[in-house]
Amino acid sequence: MGRYVARRLLIAIPTLLAISFVMYAILALAPIDPLSQFGADPRVPPEVREHIRQALGLDQPWPIRYVKWVTAFVRGDFGVSFMSHASVGDLIWQRLPNTLAVVGVAYIVGVLIAIPAGLISSVRRNSPVDHTISLFAYAGFSVPTFFTGILLIIIFSIKLRWLPFIYDSNLKITDLGSLVEQFRQSVMPIAVLGLFDAAILTRYIRAEMLEHLPLDYVRTARSKGLLERAVVIRHVLRNSLIPVVTLIALGVPAVFGGAIVTEQVFHVPGIGELLVTSIGTGDTPVIASVVMIFAVLVVLFNLIADVLYAVLDPRIKYA
Amino acid sequence: MGAIAMLVAACGQSQGPSASASTGASASATPAARGAGGDLKILYWQAPTILNPHQATGTKDNDASRLVIEPLAAFDNDGNAVAVLAQEVPTVANGGVTADFKQVTWKLKQNVKWSDGTPFTASDVEFTYKYICDPKTAASTADRCEGVDSVTAKDPNTVVVKYKDTNPFFYQVGVGFSNGILQQAQYKNCVGDAAKNCPADLKPIGTGPYMVKDFKPGDTVLYDMNPNYRDANKPFFKSVTFKGGGDAAASARAVCQTGDTDYGWNLQVEATVLKPMAAAADSKCTLLTNYGSSVERILLNFSNPDPSLGDNRGEPSTKHPFLSDIHVRRALAMATDRNAVAVQLYGDGLAGKATCNILTAPAPMVSKATDSLDVCKFDKAAAEKELQDNGWVKGSDGVRAKNGVRLELSYRTTVNAVRQKTQDIMKANWESIGFKVNLLSVPASTFFTNTSPDGANHFWTDVEMYTNSGDPDPTSYFLSGWTCNQIAQKSNNWQLGNYARYCNQAFDDVVAQLKKETDQNKRNQLAQQANDILVKDVAIIPLISRVAPTASGVSKSLKGIKVSVWDSEMWNIADWSK
After folding, report:
1. Which residue(s) pair with A85 in the sheet?
2. In terms of CB atoms within 10 Å, which end of chain B has fewer, N or C?
3. Selected residues 83-122 of chain A with any CB under 8 Å from a CB in chain B
């Protein structure tokens, strides 16, 4: 197992280098321009723009910029944002708590809803409960989050005036009052994202359970005289969760990547929002670092998922 | 000397806002005490990313920095300078400006302190311009240094600005949002190459009513009152939260419907949505609409953009096959339905109104003569007659031609929903009188780049459209936009401002007079004359006078706001109250 992990980690290095090169090449060749912000104002004279371009190092050819960037990245230096002159590491660090508080919590909520929902709907297959859960699941992943988000804002913020829709990233949780405030400002985005995550997972769990329920080992368990509850939870669910756990692990990097649309709708200054605004302003150091961190996480969690698979299913052995 | 009288009056008026601020506050508290108000909430859907106005990449940064960093004087809505860090605004009458407009002496207020308690002096001003004018600093405000000979501290309270040449816009240095004064002590190691990675840009020390408490770039700025602010009774609000992000529609909801914020910037929302929102019975906002010098205009190419000309394409030595004919230009102008554009696309006054002037502010310089001109009236029959009478006859395909030259034109602008709809309206009208119009659009970043063949500077199409605006003094606006030696061409790398390659001696003469004239009444007349020449000669087709800076929404309970189209929206935030 140890050798397997070591080998996978070694393979990850060229993979990540290839990803970084392709990403940087796309960024360099794409028609995004850090000076577009200046360009929108015809009063900024062209020679001033030229000086700015030089100051940002954009007068060098992109392969040279790539080598400089990648060597700095490996050393943990993510560079300096073109737009704010702040270190990219600081920018990401400032936004990570917001993303985790909203997208991360939503993911946990989604998983906590999906497991019982998937279980019930498979055991009570074709019952009204199953139909209701399935309806919610289909609605959850077919209605886009920007729609549900705005719908919730119109109902709960504008009509009922119960909840704020502008996320305050400076709120510090010190007492019960501020905890309630944090709950009020994050409940809508969490609901939107949680419903979406839960919808997909519910369908997976249901399908996986249905596959296991008619199998021989389940019949054996029943014939031993075990309670139905014990059969379903201890035997069927446990086996059905093996592929689901890997699925959940693979979804974790997406949490760190933030939720681009939902963060925008609720003014949550998270990683996704940072990525989108940076793409809009052509802030390449920020885009490159966020995308690269995301790539590292994907590779890492792929490995974790594979390892988990072996741990959960003793039949699988890596050598 | 009308301007001077106005300027002096403006200095007197600078006391005005404080009076209104105190009346506003007296309802809730005893005379406007410093910090009597709570937290002021401002929402910008573009978040500030940097707080140094000289490294700003947009209005959001300029506005967020203005609470902290101040210029010597501000511009009010009439284009008059109002003293901020200066004791008084220098004019020719008070001896602050020499009669040849070459030298300006600024007397600074005594005993002004930076928020860290250290004294503000003339050497901070001198240093600031050293910082901006160093090309390596790559300041986005470096245009302030153009034509400036020197900015020197004569003594701790006097700054002398010398221009290389007569400069009728002698407030270029010192007044307005691109002239914020930085603290020398904080910025001394940030000049030139070091400017790009300067921690001070995220937490600048200023003289303004507020100071930065915490700044998360791209998200929120938190400000506290500046304890060393020079006016003991200001500011009214104890703190300010400047939140960024979201979109214009959400900002409109927050300021007009829920009242979650006190100030919502730039509510670029469709008029059919925004108008009822602001007018609703339970609306919590009013909309600020101010017209400045921003004009959406259509440029007509006087050179020949035909690609077959190779290196000569669009050079001033060439002549446009049909736009060089005044009758064709007049016909285009008469078939321009600017009212339809204003009503259908600019919310009929919400975001813009129809105009036939290319200079729309300041008010005394705006021409009234254009209203009665035939080229300013939408009259397709007259346009057709003009073409018909001058030999442009319709062919079998409905397109007019003369001596083998067809009236087929290309029309480029930026990618923008309103602009594409404007193009559609123009195309429909122009085609109905016998033109063939091919529409083109490119991203704004491409359009406003002098290096791009698809850019406005190259102008390799027949017609193009965008918005531009001028300073409170229009001399450089006219000079760079339409005079003969400012023609953008290959030899100057398309860096000059006369994109249309227009050249008219009569116009150049008027601008030359405007450059020298010191009598304000005569200056106003000359500016109107310059405007009228361009409009009559159809050197350009003015379309829409746009609301500027923007239509922001303000909570009905907020008092003391005076928007200025020439300066940052936040210019008098010290006077705001509830």
Report:
1. none
2. N
3. 83-86, 91, 94-95
